[in-house]
TrEMBL record, chain A:
It comes from Alsobacter ponti. The chain crosses the membrane at residues 32-52, 64-86, 98-119, 139-158. Pfam families: DUF6644. Residues 26-158 form the DUF6644 domain. Keywords: Membrane, Transmembrane, Transmembrane helix. InterPro entries: DUF6644. The keyword Transmembrane applies. This is DUF6644 domain-containing protein.
UniProtKB/TrEMBL annotation, chain B:
This is DUF2214 domain-containing protein. Keywords: Membrane, Transmembrane, Transmembrane helix. The keyword Cytoplasm does not apply. SUPFAM superfamilies: Cytochrome c oxidase subunit I-like. The keyword Transmembrane applies. The chain crosses the membrane at residues 28-52, 73-91, 97-116. It comes from the Bacteria.
Length: 166, 174
């Protein structure tokens, strides 16, 4: 068990957990936010990462990086709506291996983004239309897409691994 | 028609879609299809959001030629969504057809797809014009901006109705 009962109870009582459990609409409202967030996150990342991987070469890397605010906003929406889900029934999430793996992949995607920011971002701003990107950027972009699509799939597969806990 | 659907649902293919496993346990076919459906949605809706942002004038550095390439990728997402969506319907056609919001979702998807086609034609028609600093800029006309907003609205409503379908479905018919 990753959390003790007292910690689980704290998350269960944290806002908006009690509200989600006492209403019929709040959870589905969270799902709508989560889906909009993932469209913004993955839509913008697809454009950015595919350009870094060598597609859409008519675009400069700087121009595709102008979509980054959508990535961050999408992630914020997903984090907020994810918190809504988690506080609704923390025990069922914490015991779900797909949820734990999903959180692990999100952490890895964060490390991947940090590596790109520290190692490649400044260099990438100079890559103009038609120019190729270095191998490291391509590898980081490909792993970013793989990790985020893995996160999406695991999110949809949570019910497969759900343990009946309340 | 109803009886034909009942017979189809009792058959091996529909039962496999609804209750079977995709290659290995515990990957239920239905949830694997839901996964592909979500990937398709993220691609088509996400790319359309980015295109609309460009058309509305937020990413002027992105050329219209590149935007047309992005739209092609969005269509790939749509075809994946369509294929997985049809299979999801075939898993329980009577239950889906009995759900009122399912028809709302279908209607707004048709709306979004027609608007996407119109957006594609609009993107091809944009011509570069000189800007005040002596450079060139590709500005979308108002009609294309309205079309882009219609695309976004259509997909947003499809997401909302799609999410709510699960909560308003009647129990599986006998």
């Amino acid at each position: 068990m990753i959390m003790n009962p007292a910690q689980l109870e704290w998350f269960k009582q944290a806002w908006p957990g009690p509200l989600v459990r006492s209403t019929s609409w709040f959870f589905s409202f969270g799902e709508i936010l989560h889906f909009i967030g993932l469209c913004l996150l993955l839509g913008s990342l697809l454009v950015i990462d595919l350009r870094l991987m060598g597609f859409f070469k008519k675009l400069s890397v700087r121009s595709v990086l102008s979509f980054l605010p959508y990535t961050l906003f999408g992630f914020l929406l997903n984090a907020v709506s994810g918190w809504i889900f988690f506080t609704s029934n923390p025990a069922s999430y914490i015991e779900n291996p797909a949820f734990l793996l999903k959180m692990g992949l999100i952490a890895l995607a964060g490390v991947n983004a940090l590596a790109f920011t520290l190692l490649e971002h400044r260099r990438m701003l100079l890559i103009g239309p038609g120019e190729d990107t270095p191998a490291l950027s391509k590898a980081l972009a490909a792993s970013s897409l793989l990790l985020w699509f893995g996160v999406l799939l695991l999110g949809r597969w949570l019910p497969i691994f759900t343990v009946g806990t309340n | 028609m109803w009886n034909a659907m009942r017979t189809f649902e009792a058959g091996d293919f529909s039962s496999w879609l609804r209750e079977g496993n995709f290659i290995i346990e515990p990957f239920a076919t239905y949830y694997v299809l839901l996964g592909f459906h979500a990937i398709g949605m993220a691609v088509v809706v996400g790319i359309c959001f980015m295109l609309s942002s460009r058309i509305l004038g937020f990413q002027l550095v992105v050329s219209m030629a590149a935007a047309r390439h992005m739209l092609r990728l969005a269509w790939w997402g749509f075809w994946l969504n369509l294929a997985s969506g049809v299979l999801l319907i075939l898993a329980q056609p009577r239950r889906e057809f009995m759900t009122e919001l399912f028809w709302v979702k279908m209607a707004v998807i048709v709306w979004a797809v027609l608007a996407m086609r119109s957006m594609g034609r609009g993107l091809a028609a944009v011509r570069p014009v000189a800007d005040a600093r002596g450079g060139v800029v590709e500005l979308a006309p108002w009609s294309l901006r309205v079309t882009a907003l219609m695309v976004d609205l259509g997909w947003l409503l499809a997401i909302v109705s799609g999410r709510l379908v699960g909560y308003t479905q009647p129990p599986p018919p006998l």
